[in-house]
Amino acid sequence: MNQPNPAPVAAEAVARLDALAIRFGEAREEISRSIIGQPEIIEQVIVTILAGGHALLVGLPGLAKTRLVKTVGTVLGLGTSRVQFTPDLVPSDILGAEVLETGKDGSRAFRFVKGPIFAQLLMADEINRASPRTQSALLEAMQERQVTAAGEARMLPAPFHVLATQNPIEQDGTYPLPEAQLDRFLMQVNVDFPSEADERDMLLMTTGAEDAAPKPVLRAEELMEAQTLLTHMPLSEDVLDAILTTVRGLRPAAGNDVPLSWGPGPRAGQALILAARARAFLHGRSAPLLEDVHALLAPVLRHRMALDYAARADGRTIEAVIADAAARL
């Protein structure tokens, strides 16, 4: 009978986390060489992956969302595949399908051909241009790290992460993502225009004779090791209470005066804990602080809530509701 591996000694685990933090700092710098002027966006994407989750990048076309995902995959050493979502895309285009093959002896048999979802990092480009039926093909994969195709459950590679890009839903030809799928994204990362100085540097870098390609810095095994060690990072009662109070306080229920049709569920609290640990790790700390929770409230919560009719009529925004909650931390 195989015995489980002993848990790492605390001192050894801390030393290994410190070494990995240096490696992730190098990875962050390498990503910043290709993605200019978006340090918070880069941090949020790395935090999402370190926390073992998936991210939804929302922004207008041309803001380097696809470039960011490609760069992250290269730098973190992850096998990456890309799916361009279009209205005619069907679930089998993502998951794979069985094909009938004829052998040399004339025998015929079905063989499953894996789809692009069988990758360590799936780039779902313009995910909201596909129909809700196709968008929902990702649900099981994002939650269970497996897909059911051709009547059989098939495990996905480890690690497995989805970085999806989305155009604002006000654009023509887009479909809103189902709430159940939105909740599977650990963060919604809003990508905005760069500053004038950053845009100047970006224009010079990307239109010259050379546009240096990003280099691999980490291996998938190092990412998985960091993810495992982070689950053992201690969490103070103050931070836990702040997360619990904030999440529960944003639900439209008795005693909560919030202008929402629905609020974040328990998965939001889980996401905040995991993400806060990852952010603390990136900032060289051995435990998350309230400032980590404060910095992550908007990207973790903004896609898990909806304004009620009166709030929409008054011109209120989800960001303002979250800002009010952050001010109470």
From TrEMBL:
Task: List, for all copies, the residue spans of the domain called ATPase AAA-3.
Answer: 54-187
Checking Pfam families in the record gives: AAA_3, AAA_lid_2
Q: Which residues form the ChlI/MoxR AAA lid domain?
A: 261-324
Which InterPro entries has this protein been placed in? ATPase_AAA-3, CbbQ/NirQ/NorQ/GpvN, ChlI/MoxR_AAA_lid
What is the name listed in the Swiss-Prot or TrEMBL entry for this protein? MoxR family ATPase
